[in-house]
Amino acid sequence: MNTSIIADKEIQPSSSSPPHLHSHACQSCRQLHRKCDKTLPSCSYCIKRGYKCVYKSERKNCCGNTKEHREEKKAHPIVFVNVATQQNHQQQQREDERSRTSLETARSSNVGGRVSTPYSSTTTTLTTPNQYHKSTTCTNILTVDRISPIESRIEHQINYVYSTRQTMDLYYDILSMGFPLIDRSTFEKVLEYQTTNSVQNMMNDFRYDFICDLEKDQALFYTVQAVCFQRLGCHEFASFHFNNGKQLIGNYFDDVDSTSIILAMRFMAEYLLGAGDKRKARSLLNTVKVKISPFIQQLRRAVKEFHEDQLRTDYIEKLMLSGQANWLIVYLLEAEMHFFDIFYCEEEHPESFIFEELELFTKNQMTLSQKNLGISSCRSLNKETAEKLFAVIEAFSSIVNLAMDSFGKREILSCLLTKFFMAQLRLDVLLNCDQETQNLQEMLRVARDVIQLTEHRHFPFIPACVTKVIITACTIRASYYSYLSPEDNLRNDLRALKILSSRFPLIQNEYNHLIKSIESLTYLHHNSEDTILLSSLLPFNEVDTRINCDVSHLMNSSDVKRIDVEEKFIHFNQYERCKSNLKELMNGSEILDIIVESVKEEVTIKTTITDPKQQIEALKNMRLRLGSQVIEMAKIHNDHSGQIAGELLKKQALFEFNLSKAKLENPEFDPNQTDLKNDFIYRFFISRSREFSC
């Protein structure tokens, strides 16, 4: 039992009058729908749980200034205080006041507004019992246990750290698609900075400029968290982190040398796009392009200088060791910007958006020859033009499938996004054909393929910039509902739209009418008497998936390899059929021939070489040659991005060879305990993730 001091020894506790009662229940009990004992100044439930007990003010005598109430207070001057708790509260209050004063002095005028960090020591410090109750006077001895303020703060910090690391796992494992823009250790430092028990210790250990850099990283941290929570459908948390990040970015907006601020603005734009503010999002994206332009120019000069140096040992390592790691981040950021450009393409280029989308899909490494195509507008395409564009799209699709299968990336998010973009290109061409060329059956087939892609396990995590193709596919299927096959239905369409609308207000606000229309069609289909089939109880594609799963369990490894080889040869043949149109229309498509030949060589190696060590050695040499060929081709076209991509490809080939070799020698080895942790790919890509995976 806690030790108590009785202020007035002449009055015994047993002589105390019964506690004064309020006429209404407290706010906490009302919200929790609990029975309140209405005891003043705090009810027993709030005292037991450590909650702040607040009673709604009465219209009359709400302030307790009546003569009767004043006399009652004078009659009971006894105050019970826990000595140890009060001393701890007062000491903690003095420390926090000094910490806040020191931090504000060190930040000076450069750090303007304060950011409300959840559960941080500077915003959630509970100092005195007055923060729980309006008054500390009691009329009787209370022996009910309650959580101390320090314990409550620690519990909140633990919860915050746990939830934060979960969203960090989401970003590094899924959303980054294998190429995170930020090192995870940076966010760990920010998290430690937020949840440290004493800001005074931080100020003693670090200089002011370091604190400023840490706040820039904190702004990036908040915006990444906002995007992650938005993808999870947690709008309140997303808005909270977005506002905090926005406030910090305002302090350092003019700092063009900080990549953290540039990256934070990129994530702010993604959040705003999902929230439905497309105009502000586009404005921020244009600002990001302007801010990274100097880095891109420097990167081009550096690439040219390093490749002209005949004595160079390692181009990528030189970039990193020279303190220019920002350039690699800018390279990855520039590649990510194309996702947003495709989303805004039709709005900004209404007459040529299909041509622009084809070039953006190649990250502007290829250009479309409108002269060979014979038209300048993508509206009202004739049959000949549509067939040429379809041939180019099918060639790209073959390359994507071959590349994803070759590197084992079929199940990652980037593969899903690429397939969505390919489907969007097909639908754009089909919807813009003239009346004589339009093919409704092909349109419905592509739309159905899009809906089947929504069953991918990573579909709930797609960005808002990819939602256009899902909306288009659902609109087509709802508009031509009577043309759908009997076994087809709109349940998966509705499920996909519900998932997107729960995450992005953009979908909820702009396409709510589409969701309601599909809900009505689904209801009619379910209750139609002439469609009482298995499909009305179980979606057709779900049945198809289960059948495929059952068959796959009966296959042995040799059968699976044989099917994979057959699928690759199908893609090879498809590319050969479309290659002539591809070369006619797309300038710079020679690189695709190199990729196809390398994949063919890989298939030959895997089917003819049975010894594992010889196989991984042959694959390493093949991919090193591929990287060198990509670099030489990029030099011809003066493409700095292609040169960096070739260097990274060679780095990845060496890393995968060393990893496979280590696994053959010791299947249970730990890469963190080997020399592999010093490898470039491990340090700058794989080690940024929570788990080590290849």
TrEMBL record:
Start-end of Basic and acidic residues biased regions: 92-101
Any Pfam family: Zn_clus
Annotated localization: Nucleus
Segments for region (Disordered): 1-23, 84-126
SMART domains in the record: GAL4 (SM00066)
The keyword Nucleus appears for this protein: yes
Polar residues composition-biased segments: 102-111
GO MF term list: DNA-binding transcription factor activity, RNA polymerase II-specific; zinc ion binding
Signal peptide segment: none
Keywords linked to the UniProt accession: Metal-binding, Nucleus, Transcription, Transcription regulation
Compositional bias per record (Low complexity), positions renumbered to this chain: 116-126
CC terms in the record's Gene Ontology section: nucleus
Residue span, Zn(2)-C6 fungal-type domain: 25-55
Stored InterPro entries: TF_fung, Zn2-C6_fun-type_DNA-bd_sf, Zn2Cys6_DnaBD
Name of the molecule in the record: Zn(2)-C6 fungal-type domain-containing protein
Protein source organism: Naegleria fowleri (Brain eating amoeba)
Top-level taxonomy: Eukaryota, Discoba, Heterolobosea, Tetramitia, Eutetramitia
